[in-house]
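Zinc protease (Ekhidna lutea), 941 aa
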Amino acid sequence: MKLTHILSLFIAAAVFSCSAPGSMEKKEFKIEYEKFTLDNGLEVVLHEDHSDPIVAVATLMHVGSNREKPGRTGFAHFFEHMSFNDSENVPRGANRKLIPEWGGSRNGGTWSDGTIYYEVVPKDAFDKILWIDSDRFGYMINTVTDDALEAEKQVVKNEKRQRVDNAPYGYTDEVIRKNLYPEGHPYSWTVIGSLPDLQAATLDDVKEFYEQYYGAGNATLVIAGDIDPVETKEKVKQWFGEIRKGPEVEKPQPMPVTLESTKSLYFEDEFAKLPELRMVYPTVEDYNEDMYALNVLGQLLSGSKKAPLYQIIVEESKLAPNVSTYQFSNEMAGEFIFRVRANAGVDLDSVKLAIEQGLDRFENNGIDENDLKRIKAELETNLYQGVSTVLNKAFQLVTDNEFGGDPSYITQTALKTQAVTSDDVMRVYNKYIKGQNFVMTSFVPAGQSELMVDGAKEAEVYIEEIVANVESENVTRGEVAEYEKTATEFDRSEPEFGELPLLKSPEVWSSYLDNGMQVFGIENNELPLVYFDITLKGGHYHDSIDKSGVAFLLSDLLTEGTQTKTPAELEEAIGLLGASINVNAGREEITISASCLARNFEETFELVKEIILEPRWDEKEYDRLKQSLITRLKGREASPTAIASTVFDKLMYGEDHILGYSTLGTLESVENISMSDLKSYYAANFSPSVASFHVAGNVSQDEVMDQLDDFNWASTDVQIASYEAPEIANAGNIYFIDFPGAKQSVIYIGQLAISGVNSEYNEMTYANEKLGGGSSGELFQTLRIEKGYTYGAYSFVRQTTEKSPFVATSSVRANATLPSLEIMKSMIANYADNFTEEDVEVTKNKVLKANTRAFESLGSKLNMLHEITKFGKSPKYMEKEQEELTSMKLEDYKKMINKYMDESQMIYLIVGDGATQLEEVKKLGMGDPILLDINGDPLTQ
């Protein structure tokens, strides 16, 4: 996953704590830390957190795309990729492969202003992470070869194709940047850059970039977690102290822009199915005093049902399902963005007019002080949630140190946000929005230029042509470079593991209510937060096929008011508590979930009770939500990945099984749904007899049970749906869906495999780890690292009570479709034969150590409780599963592979460009592909 920005736009607010029931006193929020600077200029920040036996390491290089030269755009991001490949004292590819095998996770991210590298590992691998991370930082440049350079170009190209070229509205950022910022401005090009620039990159460019920006004096290192600060200081000096300082790098200065006139541009997007309007105003850089008021302005304009833009665009004019406005600040400049993805066929002139009317209403009505109070309460909760894991703390500390000059700048951000007044908001509105020039983009479906804003000029966009010959882009990483190793005083050999940390499952308490509802909880007092939910069996599984989507629509409607509160009043009541309440329909359950400050648990739970027991059945909101769902389903027709996922399920389960259909339903089924269908579903399926209550956080069992004792929810019998087990009727078939112009092909391969309640489920998932379990899996290592065909490749099986499919999937560059299929087919077919005793040991080590990170956040603790209730597990199930893992022998792995990952029983589905790839797919040797439309229905051949 690439990080385009590390922090949320709304991560900070003033924090309060209860000194006594009913009273509040101000308390500054801060993250405790210790900071020191090495002789080479590297700034180091340490944070102790002994709640879990894990450590997070984050290294932020103060170099993003804003340091690039015209003609070499995308280089900061490309260099990030190169940095993971090899270094002098670490084996090639170890970063991507070994860290997951140590039970850790790792990645990097590049944005306009910086590049970050990060890892989270069990504490026994702490020394190893310092070894691997410091070597990447200071000792990688000699290992780069021309072959490695060319291979990584293919990976980055695949990322761009997946995220930009093969995605609806993917070119919007490019169009906006070119027109908002003058030529040569550091933000006038995208972070990922252009393909011609990337292709032109040379080894000398890589070395020049490293020499200029990758010195210790241009970085911050943060280590957070279960550490001893005294020992850690010495280790940091050893591993990072000999890295060269590098040349002085001048800190970028603010470069705000002013538009002489408004610019309106349009683009006919061959992937888009819905028209989208964006309006972008130039504003201020990060940490600017006006940024905090602009953040609040964004929430006031569109962030609630009372917001003027929401009222006019969504409720009154019914032009779109939602509207968003927000401030986005970078180091040198900022933007205030209006974004509306309209309903199908909506003329964007009407959207622009509605925005203008909404702004007029904002000016005329002024600011409700209650709205300000609500926004600040919501931001307070976000503040705590934003630093709820050691990795998130590391991100906050490293970013604020490098860009704000103070690791604890979050304290100032909180105070400055809290200090925003109505006058401040109106001042920044008048200064940056009212009467100011902006860049406006109209992205419309191909052939629907009549929907663009009148007078818009066609935008210039570089579009890559699909090259049919894969051999023209085939590259390898070549031989390991020959070089003279950099001399160091400290031995940079791989260190040993430390003492193995022991898994500590949280203590779980449980109870039952008289109405039959189960109750499970985990008390955790690290932060003043509580997460809780009520989960009901059924969900999408209880939909009828002809009205698939009822559960989803009902889940949306339940938060739109109660019998005593309008939708706006309920939203405000939740917001004033700094809480969030959501209802979600999954495949097999509906979940009413909430998060809140611990002091507001009682009031938040009262609102949840009201939502469940007193639904409003608001016809106006129902009509809006139904139209919103139709718009969303239409939009999914523009996503090859969404199409592949939906059709694959249909092929797995068949037309007579509800899981063969998306939880969203289909355009046809949603049209069939009425309000009475939602009421019938509610009456038949909402009962404590099929419900469980889960809670984790800073609240005791007694406090929870006091609230639940007053929960007068009458129990009724619920008829649990059942379906015949689908027959494997499509085994060995290969299917193709034509998506004209696709720059990548989406591949799904799999078979219906196993239920989550099957006693062999865990063993099956362990057996899959070597094949597709993350970046260390064979699919990823072969298709991305070795071949450069894709940005990622994985395999998995969902844990559901119904039998779930085993899935191997990837999005590969279009002209690599056939070789990718051949590789995946061969790997799966030969997987059991190639599984070795060494693979058994690697799998055990990987899974056991990863479990040290299993319960860090409140969300993960809540997920643990879900597993207990859904699958009937004991509170100590993790220990049992670890025993299963450690007792597995080689023959057990082979048995699971042969039983549940049998290539001869699998189907193949490809969504790609038919004009260039259909004939190629025929060469796979599985016969002519069966052609399907985007809904999975056969086409006449």
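Confidence is low (pLDDT under 50) at residues 1-26. The first strand starts at residue 16 and ends at 17. ok done for today
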